[in-house]
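Chapter summary example.
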Amino acid sequence: MGKENARPGRWAFSPATQPAFAAHVHEHPLINHYRATQGGEPVMISDFLSRQRFHRLGLYAEFFRGIPVEYQMAISLPGPDAEVIGVALSRARHDFRDEDRSLLSVLQGPLIAALVRARRRQQAGQALSALLRGGLPVSRTARSRSSGWSPRGARTSPSPASSS
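The structure predicted for these 164 residues follows.
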């Protein structure tokens, strides 16, 4: 498919393409690999399927052909339960090389660290919201002291009398 056939929104995973992907996700060789192995190493579609076999999948006919994607390489990041969180690189021409695989492997550690930090930040935000909504009995003084800021935004410093 040439660039003249490309339309905005067809080059990315979008709400318009999600139903086709969801209908055929069970055919995706990379997702199936990560679900079966619980691994996260960089793998390519060509590690599992020839180009002809890839083209015979409903996943290709209904989803990848329209984007267009002929080659894909991905890593998996740790997700909750059996969820697969993938970071995929896709190309219309030329399969990925071993150098590309090595680079993606190097990037995996920092991506996992960023994901862990994001999850911790989300959990901390949820806990703070619960505290501020009154989910747990916490005095106004304790809330101010724990955040380091008073409700008016002035810096607080614990006094010896309130530190017990």
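To summarize the output: Helices lie at 18-24, 29-37, 51-55, 58-64, 98-132, 140-147.
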